Amino acid sequence: MIRFTKKEEAFLGGQDVARIATVSPRGWPQVTPVVHLYHDGRIYFITDYGTRKYKNIVKNKKVGAAIDVYSRQPSSVIVQGTAEILERGEEFARIEKLFEERHRYYKANPVKEGDAPMIKITPVKKFSSF
Questions:
Q1: Alpha-helical regions (H) of the chain
Q2: What does the alpha-carbon distance between residue 100 and residue 96 come to, in Å, rounded to a whole number?
Q3: Which domains does the chain have, with CATH numbers?
C-alpha cells in the first residue's frame, strides 16, 4: 500500500465525490461518480448489488479512483488499486458509522450488514497535484 502526504490526506478527507473506474468483462473501462469516504489510507464507497461497478469488481479487483476539484487552482489525487467487497463484520460496521457521521444521506439512510456491499480500495499507485 502506498502512503499519502498530509496535504493529500486532508484533500481526500475533505471531498465528498470520487469517480471510480472499473473494468468490464470485455475489458472496457466504466467510470461512475460515488460518495466516498477516505479513512486510514483507503477509499470506501457503498453501492448496490445490481450495479455494473459491483458486477465488474466481482470479476476484476483492479480499480481506479479520481478525487478532484477544478477551479482556478485545480487539485486532484488519482489512485490505482485493488478493491475488496465488504458485506459484514467489524470493519463494515466501523466504516458505515463513519459514513453516517460524514454524510447526511447515510445518517438518514444507514446501511446495515447485508443491505448493500461496501467497497474498500487499497491504493497501490497514486498521482497527485500536491
A1: 6-14, 52-59, 90-102, 104-108
A2: 6
A3: 6-128 (2.30.110.10)
Residue found under cell 483507503: 42
What Cα–Cα distance (Å) separates residue 31 from each residue in 1, 45, 100? 23, 14, 25
Q: Rounded to an integer, what distance in angstroms lies between the CA atom of residue 32 and that of residue 84? A: 17
Grid cell at residue 55: 458486477
Over the range 5-44, which residues count as b (16 or more CB within 10 Å of their CB) and which as e?
Answer: eeebbebbeebeebebbbbeeeeeeeeeebbbbbbeebbb
Name the pTM for this structure: 0.95
| Residue 127: exposure state from Cβ atoms within 10 A (0-12, 13-18, ≥19) | exposed
| pLDDT tens digits for range 42-75 | 999 999 999 999 999 999 999 999 999 988 888 9
Region of residue 114 (left: phi > 0; alpha: psi -120 to 50; beta: else): left
The pLDDT value recorded for residue 92 is 97
pLDDT of 89 > 80? The answer is yes
